[in-house]
């Protein structure tokens, strides 16, 4: 529902009375029809954001149509645009879905950048085993600063193989 106001004046009373049965009613009826026609070509966002240009378009169209009646349309103002509650809910749901979709895209782009950075870091660490060991120690230092009571210190099992012996590693001698 749209409320609009049309300001007009009669500049030629003789023509206004002789050419139209009721110039006031005709002007209001023409204004309602013009408003419906102009708004029918716009979407809701344009109606809400371009009130002045819509008003100007309407004023021009009404002034041209009422000129033969001796009526001059001075100004048109769109006062209020009211949306049904169901449409408001539908628009809110659509906007929420669009926000969630944008958030998912942004999160996915962040994950992609993070994975690329991790790949680059791993490429650097592959070139230098000492860098990998330093990163490992840095991670342990970070963990210990958090006052955890238990630190799991993973050690590759193949490092311990020479110290354990062949039977402890799951190998059996066949005789």
Annotation, overall tally of beta strands: 2
Rounded average pLDDT: 83
Order of helices and strands: EHHHHEHHH
SS element count, helices: 7
Main sheet makeup: 2 strands, antiparallel
Give the overall form: rod-shaped
- Strand order in the sheet with the most strands: 1-2
Question: Unreliable runs, pLDDT <50, ≥5 residues?
Answer: none
Distance between the amino and carboxyl termini: 96 Å
Question: What percent of residues adopt helix (DSSP H or I)?
Answer: 55-70%
Instruction: Indicate the structural class.
Output: mainly alpha
Strand content: 5-15%
Radius of gyration: 39 Å
Set down the secondary structure blueprint.
Elements: E1 2-10, H1 13-19, H2 23-40, H3 44-49, H4 51-66, E2 71-81, H5 85-127, H6 129-145, H7 157-164
Antiparallel strand pairs: 1-2
Helix pairs in contact: 2-4, 5-6
Question: What would your notes on this structure say?
Answer:
With 175 residues, the chain is mainly α. It is 66% helix and 11% strand. It has a two-stranded antiparallel sheet. The longest helix has 43 residues, at 85-127. The mean pLDDT is 83.
């Amino acid at each position: 529902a749209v409320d609009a106001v049309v300001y007009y004046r009669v500049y030629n009373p003789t023509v206004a009375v002789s050419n139209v049965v009721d110039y006031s009613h005709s002007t209001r009826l023409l204004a309602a029809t013009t408003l419906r026609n102009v708004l029918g070509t716009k979407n809701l966002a344009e109606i809400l954001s371009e009130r002045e240009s819509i008003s100007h378009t309407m004023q021009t169209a009404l002034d041209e149509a009422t000129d033969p009646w001796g009526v001059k349309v001075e100004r048109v103002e769109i006062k209020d645009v009211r949306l049904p509650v169901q449409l408001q809910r539908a628009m809110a749901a659509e906007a929420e879905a669009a926000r969630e979709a944008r958030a998912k895209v942004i999160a996915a782009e962040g994950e992609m950048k993070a994975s690329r950075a991790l790949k680059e870091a791993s490429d650097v660490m592959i070139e230098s085993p000492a860098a990998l060991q330093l990163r490992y120690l840095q991670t342990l230092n970070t963990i210990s600063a958090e006052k955890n009571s238990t630190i799991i210190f993973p050690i590759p099992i193949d490092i311990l193989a020479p110290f354990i012996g062949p039977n402890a590693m799951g190998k059996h001698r066949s005789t």
